[in-house]
Design brief:
CATH architecture of the largest domain: 2-Layer Sandwich
Structural class: alpha+beta
CATH superfamily of the largest domain: Elongation factor Ts, dimerisation domain
Largest sheet: 3 strands, antiparallel
Helix content: 55-70%
CATH topology of the largest domain: Tetrahydropterin Synthase, Chain A
CATH class of the largest domain: Alpha Beta
Amino acid sequence: MTNEVLEVDRKQTATAGQTELVKELRSRTGAGVMDCRNALTEANGDLEKAAEILRGKGLAVASKKAGRVASEGVVNAYIHTGGRVGAIVEVNCETDFVARTEEFKRLARDLAMQVTASAPLYVSREEVPAEAADVQRKVFAAELAGKPAAAVDGKLEKWYQEVALLEQPFIRDDTKRVRDIITETIARVGENIQVRRFARFKIGE
């Protein structure tokens, strides 16, 4: 094979590899093809770094839309097999058009399933009463007496991830938090999305 043929073959192989990386990145993040390509270029082909770059951009998109009114949406419910535990959630968006899409409905159902499985007490970290957080900090400080303050902070952070829905690891992908999944959906649909409220029911409780 001549050098020219080898070079063409090398470029074709590289292109095929790039295409597979773009597909994988799209599968993970839901971002567009060009966004994935640009992120991979910025990350020098590092898939994990590219995903972080896209999540960062998603956060920027979510931040810009956070102040917009979300008065449409859906109420969705999930009842676990056997009918002994379930949850209902209200998830809001800006328009009825987005509320009727399969992607938005799937998000609402996943959130209802998340509440059923993980039993959060609050929607967000900001909703946790300061008094409750102070009590937990004192409990952890007593448990970790003599340990650095960072150890107490770490324990408190883990507690937030248990009691606040948006801070919990997502049940379908525990490498992400629930708020990451919502942020990625905001970036894709172009509208503000908010979890308004939820309720969880279990037989005997």
